[in-house]
Amino acid sequence: MRRTSSSNLCVPARAAGVLHALFLAFLLPAAGACAHDRASGDWGGRRSQLADLGIEFAVDYIAESFGRDDAENGSYLGNLDVMLTFDTEKLGAWSGGLFFLYGQNNHNSGISYSLNLLMPVSNLDAESFTQLSEFWLEQQLGSRVYVRLGKQDANRDFAAPRFAGNFVNSSFGVLPGSPMPSFPAPALGAAVLTEPTSWLGLRAGVYEGSPEVGSFGESAFHDGAGLFAIGSLLLSHDIRGREGGIASVGGWTHTESDRSGVFGVYDVLLFANPTDQDDPRSVQFFVRGGWSPEDDEEIGAYVRKKLLKPNERHSDKSCRHTRRQAKD
Length: 328
Prior knowledge:
4 helices; 14 strands
């Protein structure tokens, strides 16, 4: 049930209509290879040696463009992620520790700024920035408790569906209507993640209430910054002996805005052949919702669902979109 800080999945390019199908036909046969190999390889064995010593390095670059059929509006957005992970036990320091550094550069701007939208079109839409987005130390206590201190993304641990990364929609990223610290401004804070049993998880976190892009966490000590506190309960279940669903319910409060709310997430993985552990074919479904007292500048209630089917195709005649990702 524990969710990691970064994903090793290789996401194929997405585009509308016929181009979408052509891109997928070209990229899907290579998906298995790219899930295990890095673009720059093993550096003559040095990369594996560093991993054995407790140092892992990863780089992601995402290029995204939008264009409208009925207007001249178009955009190009690029996002560079550089991540370093240090395993304190492998480094010979102490056991159970993990130190994570995450540098990020987001350049140009998405199409949302030219359309005056309530919510951004893409989960990468933001004004250009270069920053150390996250830096935290996670310590394992026993076999079922993890404590994380530092600048971090709260949405990843509390309200992110497992399968939302297949889509660019911003509403599948950060929970709408909630001031939860996340992209592009993670927050200084502390989180406790526990798994009392294999099917039950409890999580709680307290973060700075008004994080700022480019901050190293000093914004937590500004006057009026406030606090954001959140807690959730997770329940997981198998389906015929294979990984199944995860349900999460929780609540949050924000001292500066004097607002509180509740949320829920449920996602499920339905395998085509549950009895065959080597058959990866599946249908994935997730639904997420949230509620908070209405505010003139915020979304009061939100519900979003999605069913992912094998070889799914989607066409939107009003907007053309392409996203490419390079991962090392």
